[in-house]
Design goal:
318 residues; alpha/beta
């Protein structure tokens, strides 16, 4: 019989991105500005992580919603072409596919204009029981921009996943409403792994030092806290281990999707059963390589290519 196991089921936001580079200032009202590069790609935490994991050799399913429109067709086709199972993506007739205009600055930093669209209508029922039962890891990706799902509804899925025997993982995006802990508190006790950026985590627990952030998060029962720190690498904490790992030095072009790439790399290392340090270094490598090309996933390489990069790459200082 064919193996129907899913390594990672990624549930969360699915987005069509339109990006341009470089954009260092907004054009005057009624005027036109030129850019050197413009393109379209898939974005959103669940789809980015799903594509990255597939590139790294994992079996992946993506669960979420798109609209009945060209953007939705594009998202599903791109995921399918990447080897991701899209059979449980809901096509919502009452909302458009979520979209983001990504303005990439000359130094690689990004600014965004975002339309929530169908992501706002994701429901716990969108995650089938049979997917949970086949999944090694269930990853909720994109908390804070799914108002129909964030909080207790997402906690329901995490609880169901743990009951099915899956490891659970959680990631966030920036909460423009400022409600942070109010939204995420119901979810934290049901997450085995939590991989936020340090800026997001600081807002959640109202601390700035990585160690204090991790301590407060682990008090909810989280087993592994991984704080993404950009050019400063990452901070990892378990009950018996604390690590701060430097980033790899690369020629960065576009940082879009690098946090999702880190998460994908971390989960891929976790699936291998590696020690925490090797898992974190691999995650840093996947995140760094993501920044070497335009778009959210183009820079991510295969599992073997990433290991080869790690063997010769130079670490950032400080």
């Amino acid at each position: 019989m064919p193996d129907k196991t899913i390594d990672v089921a990624c549930m969360g936001i699915l987005v069509a991105d339109v990006f341009g580079r470089p954009i260092d200032q907004w054009p005057q009202r009624g005027r036109l500005s030129l850019v050197d590069e413009m393109g379209m790609g898939v974005g959103g935490c669940a789809s980015n992580a799903g594509i990255d994991l597939a590139k790294l050799g994992a079996k992946v399913a993506v669960i979420g919603r798109v609209g009945r429109d060209g953007f939705g067709d594009f998202v599903r086709a791109t995921l399918n072409a990447s080897g991701v199972d899209t059979s449980t993506i809901v096509v919502d007739p009452e909302a458009g596919t979520s979209g983001t205009m990504v303005m990439v600055h000359g130094d690689g930093e990004r600014s965004f204009i975002h339309y929530p669209g169908a992501n706002a209508r994701v429901q716990p029922e969108d995650m089938p029981d049979e997917v949970l039962q086949r999944s090694k890891i269930v990853f909720i990706a994109g908390t804070n921009v799914m108002p129909g799902f964030d909080g207790e509804p997402a906690a329901q899925v995490l609880r169901r996943a743990k009951e099915a025997g899956a490891t659970t993982c959680l990631d966030t995006v920036w909460d423009a409403t400022g409600r942070w802990m109010e939204i995420i508190a119901p979810m934290l006790p049901h997450a085995d792994i939590f991989l936020p950026s340090i800026a997001e985590a600081a807002e959640i627990v109202k601390e700035t030092e990585p160690a204090k952030i991790a301590e407060k998060l682990m008090a909810y029962g989280i087993k592994i806290v991984g704080l993404k720190m950009g050019e400063q690498g990452c901070y990892l904490r378990t009950a018996g281990e604390e690590l701060r790992l430097p980033a790899f030095r690369v020629d960065s072009i576009d940082g879009t999707g690098s946090g999702d790439a880190f998460a994908a790399g971390f989960l891929r290392g976790y699936l291998e059963g590696w020690p925490l340090e090797r898992t974190g270094r691999f995650a840093n490598a996947v995140g760094a390589l993501c920044t070497t090309a335009m778009g959210t996933t183009a820079g991510v390489r295969s599992f073997d290519e990433t290991l080869a990069f790690m063997a010769t790459a130079v670490l950032r200082e400080g």
